[in-house]
Structures are given as structure tokens and as C-alpha cells.
Write a structure and sequence with these properties.
The structure holds two protein chains of two kinds. Chain A is mostly beta strands. Chain A has three helices and eight strands, in the order H-H-E-E-E-E-E-E-E-E-H. In chain B, the strands form two sheets. Chain B has a nine-stranded mixed sheet with strand order 3-2-4-7-1-8-11-10-9, with helices on both faces. In chain B, 32% of the residues lie in helices and 18% in strands. The longest helix of chain B has 15 residues. The chains are: A mainly beta, B alpha/beta. Chains A and B meet through strand 4, strand 5, strand 6 and strand 8 of A and helix 4, helix 5 and strand 5 of B. Strand 4 of chain A pairs antiparallel with strand 5 of chain B, so a sheet runs across the interface.
Amino acid sequence: MSPQQSLSGDRPKAAPKPTPETQPYWDAANRRELAIQRCTSCGKAFFYPRSACPVCYSKQVEWFVASGRARLHTYLISHRPAPGFAEQVPYAIAVVELEEGPRMMTNVVGVDNTPENLVLDMDLEVDFEPRGAQLVPVFRPAGSRAENAAGHAAGSVAGSPAESPA
Amino acid sequence: MTAKGRVAIVGAAETERIGVVPDVSALEMHAESARRAVADAGMTLGDVDGVAAAGLSPISVAHYLGITPNYVDATSIGGCSFLVHVRHAAAAISAGLADVILITHGESGRSRTGAPPRAADPASPQGQFEAPYGTLGPPTLFPMGVLRYMKRYGLTHEQLASVAVAQRRWSSRVPRAMFRDLITVEDVMASRMVSYPMHLLECCLVTDGGGALVVTSAARAKALPGPKPAVYVLGTGEAAETPLVSMMEDFTTSKAFTVSASRAFAEAGITPSDVDHLMVYDAFAHLPIYGLEDLGFVGRGEAGAFIEEGNTSPGGRLPMNTNGGGLSYTHTGMYGMFLVQESIRQLRGEASAQVPGVQTSVAQGVGGMFMSAGTLVLGTETVAGA
């Protein structure tokens, strides 16, 4: 793609394409659940999805629904929009540390993405946003979802991208 | 057994023009660099029996040049690939697999003339677990750990800016550098914000250009000396940590840097105090900070002040990135070739901003966004500090 194309605002945000090994993660996200894996041999939780434990190499791994609680580990604020992000620029691309230990890249929603608002180690909780037909996990400041918590508590309601808040 | 001191770089050259070169394709830049490096070695392309390249296939490069190699290395692990090609070449030559190995780089990073498309596979780990969050190339990925580093060690925005200031002091002495005007910390801080906390002047250039190296045995280098002094390969390292910057084990250090460099230093039998000249791949201003600490030149959290105080600037005790680096000299995309070229110029005594008496130089490359690393310890003699 040319830089001109990649900067255009009329293309959609990039959507993930699941593989057989990652399909359970993405299926869970479409149910508004953050499902990750842990090793039943060594007990370590890990991310991203894999067929075996990256710590002890055991294939005895299981899926579980994470609490959705996380802390803001690090981030940057991009001033150049990726496709679909033109109206959000500047926006943070962040790495959060889940309560269960693993870290993952995400966006921080429900708060203006400024250095003043985004304080490292602040408490966050999972939410979901559409990318094409797929919901992807994003995170918002803990407690900032009070007004719609009944409908969107993590893992409690099966949602579809069409119904989810943008 | 290692290749330590038994292998030499006898030819090194960049394309005649670097910077904005829209009238030359990426492939032709590989070829032009190759011809110039072979001439620099006092050889002909007919002497070459091994070819290594990244960006484009060594098969494409070899065929374009008219070489049928009996050794090919298509290792492509980002901008440090060429340092790793030297490592592999040293092993191959020591093992008798090849006699003269040509390593080429050419990239139309700015003009995209004959450049391969930038692919983004939505099923790759990056496509699934990073791209949906609005990543758009290195500025949105590489600096991911900087705020964590700042919180942990107290690095200031001014210290980060001082990396660009120090390197401009070097490039001001380098006629081929794209940016040569001296700048201040205030200039850096006033430049456009690209990806907080990185301002424009803390991000590398995007340019066109190429470079090539000719590697052979130290024995051949001594028996058939070329027109230029041979540079000896004293220690090498390579490592890979993660394809996803978001999966770095510790955002304040590069595991690939430490693994790669410790191996190279051990092989060469040196410590940081033996190093006269250092090149650290600077796609962004925080890389030299990580490099100085991960290679053991300073303690954890000390690199920002070390650079700010002028220790890596002209006249300082550890001259670093003496061509001006990716921030000021050139950055084609896979910049590692230019690290090695500057180390060789300094060791030969022919650099534009020459440091007096360089006998041992270290080049530290990175691939991807702290994805991988390659390290070379190079010297004027077959034993470090001889």
C-alpha cells in the first residue's frame, strides 16, 4: 500500500483474521469475553494464543475467561491515523498487563487519550469494539462503565458487532 | 571453535548516492553497492562464490550480477540482517563452505522505486493482535516501551532529545549526511509530535540507498591484500526475542540486544572498556539509550545522562553513531548495513568524522521493533587491542 492510501480515513480499521489456534479467543471476544490460556502443568497464564505453553512447553493448556481487570503498562500516542482512525487521532496504542499476568496490546477507550489522563499503572477494565465483523478487546478506566454496566459486564452478555457500542 | 580473527571484511562501499534517489531501483542499489564493494576489495565479481542479501533475495541479486553462488544466505530478520550475514559468512568461510562472500543491501525506502510491497497479513500474530489497534509502521510500535523506561528510571524528555542533538554534532561533519545543521534540545522538543513521546527529530529519516561488504578469510586477506586495510571479525552475535513489540519481556531493555552482544563480546574476549567506537542502530532516539545499557557501557538508567553530558559526542570518551546515525545520516529501512560501513571507515581511518586511533569498533543492530539483534566486534588486528 502507498503511504497515501494508508493515511486515508475512508478505509475500515484493520480486522483480525483468526487461525484455527486463535479461533477460540476471537469467538469468545464476540461473546464479549476475554478468554486466554493457561498451562495446567506449570500454572502460567499466557497470551497470545498458542497450542502449547511457551514457558514449560507442555501441551496441557486450557482456556479460561480472564477477569478483564488490567493495569496500563506502557503506551504511545500516535499523531498519524491508521486506516479507520482518522477521527480519533491522536490516539493511544497501549500495552496492558492483565490481572492474570500476561500483557497485550490494546486501545484505551472512555477517556481522552492524553498523557495527563493516561497514567502508567492506572486500573483498567476490558470492553469490546468492532473491527469489521469481529469484536476485539479494548480497555477503559476502571469504573468508567457504570452507566451501561448492566448490559455489558464482561462475559455476561453475548453481543454482536452490530449491537456493540462503537 | 569460533571464527574469531580468522575472517576479514576486505571490501566495503555504499551506493554513490544516498538520500533521495528515485531514479535507481532497489535491485540496482544492491548491484551498484556490490560492484563498488568488490572494487574496494581489489577483486572482481568473478571472485565471489557466496552471496547474502536481505530485502531482496540473494538469488535475485546474484543472477542480476551474473554470479552462480555456491553459498546463499537469505536471512531476513530486519535491519540487523547484514550484521548476521557477516556472522554466518564468518562461520561458512571458517568451515570451508565458501571463499569470498558478498553481502548486499539496497532499498528504495523513500522513493519506493522497484521496492517490494509492504505486506500486512491479517492472520499473522501482528495482524491479529496489534494491527486492530491502529498500528501504522515503526513510529506506532518501536517506542512502545519509552514511557515505561521513563517511569522506571526517570529519563527526561530533554535527555531523550539530547540523543538527536549529539548525533547531529557528528553529522554536521559528514558531507553525505542528509541532515547536517546543528540542533538544540529545544529544537527537538519543538519539532512535530509523531508518536508521543517521540518528536519528529527523535525519529529516523526515510531514505534511498545501499551498501555491500566483501568477506573472506584472514589468510587470503594477508596473502592477497587489497588496496584498503582489512578489517577483522573478532566476535559476532545474533538473537531473536519476539515478532510482536507488545510481547517484550521487559519494556526497559532489549533481551535480543543483551543475548547477541554478550555472545559477541565473549567471543572477542573484550569488555566495554576495550571499545574505541560504537554504532547502535538508531531508528528512534531511545535505541542508543537501550543499547548503551544492554551492552554494558553504562549502568541501568544511566544512559540518558551519559548522552546528555556529551560522552558520546565528538570529543567524548565513547564516540557513538559517528556518521550521524539513522536520525541524521541516512535510514533506508534496513539501516544495519550503514552501521557496519561506518565501523569499517573508522577502523580504516577514512571516516568523514574520524575518531583518532580506532582499533576496536562495535556495531549493534536491531531488527523489527526489538524483534531481533545482531552484533559485530570488528578490529584492525586479528586480536582485539593487539
